[in-house]
Amino acid sequence: MTAEDYYDYNETDLVCSNNNVSVFSLVFLPTIYSIVFIVGFVGNALVLCVLVKYHQRSNVTDVCLFNLALSDLLFLISLPFWAHYAAVSDWIFGSFMCHAVTGFYMLGFYGSVFFMILMTLDRYSVIVHAHNSLFSKYRSVRASIAVAMFMWALSLGASLPTIIFSQVINDSNVLMCKEEYPEETFLLLFSYIEMNLLGLIIPLSVMVLCYSRIIPILMAMKSQKRHKAVKLVLVLVIVFFLFWTPYNIVLFMKFLRQFGYMASCQWEENLNMATQWVETLAFSHCCLNPIIYAFVGQKFRNSILKIFKQWFPICFGRCSIIVSEISERRSSMYSNSSVVSSTKIV
């Protein structure tokens, strides 16, 4: 189920008026999609620059973070096309771009899910099976790259049905890019189930099981390095599910609607309006991963500052001088105050 499905609102045999939803989407969606695209593209591009430039000794986590940022970028590439589509309610980019943009959308979504699962399993193997040589043997960079390629193959396989059945349809001289499944098949229902299973239920189950074993072990450990690594992965996973779970819930309600539940026009309008909000919430998740890296990882912040100093030497050169002067003043004031306090004690 992709973004284009929400611009075709007659999902049942009822003829329902969705003028409120259409007017709302004409202004709301293009604006939000544009903001998410700009912020997310800049942030994830910086993540890729940091990982390529300053991480000479890559590990499994770095490979996963790299591919996670790449997944977000693929997802973000589709947003300008959906923004234009929502603004003019007409697909002008042709049949090939309908398949391509849908492919970017689906590959980005499933790529994010699968690489978060891979990061969780990696943390699980490192912490729960720390003394097992079999797990440490297969944690080399080459092995992690091979696993990453396998994850991309899985993402492509999960995305193929949606990509294949997405096509441009002429409806009353209005071109629509949407999924068009053969009649009297279960492919449409399968797409709903696939999104819910692969996008929420299976990854959530895997992560709950893994972290239920990881957290008790961490509570008994004193290694700050491992704590930070697990903290980063855990925050990424929690944020992902907070932003994508409402989307999957609404998608499941649309799945139930295919069986005749919630078949009134009021329910259709409510579901379509809810879709606008949860879809926007889910899409904005692409902007958050770089922010999470910045808040959680000190090394990432330092690497970003190095890149900014190289790209904008005048601005950030002056800023670094000002920061160093402030820190020197603070240290001198602290030393003076300590001398005064010591004399008072004496």
Automatic annotation (TrEMBL):
One of its GO terms (cellular component) is external side of plasma membrane. One of its GO terms (biological process) is cell chemotaxis. Pfam families: 7tm_1 (PF00001). Keywords: Cell membrane, Disulfide bond, Endosome, G-protein coupled receptor, Glycoprotein, Membrane, Receptor, Transducer, Transmembrane, Transmembrane helix. It is a multi-pass membrane protein. InterPro entries: CCR1-9-like, Chemokine_rcpt, CXCR4/ACKR2, GPCR_Rhodpsn, GPCR_Rhodpsn_7TM. GO terms for molecular function: C-C chemokine binding; C-C chemokine receptor activity. It is found in: Cell membrane; Early endosome. Residues 43-293 form the G-protein coupled receptors family 1 profile domain. The chain crosses the membrane at residues 32-52, 64-85, 91-121, 141-166, 186-211, 232-256. The keyword Glycoprotein applies. Belongs to the G-protein coupled receptor 1 family. This is G-protein coupled receptors family 1 profile domain-containing protein.
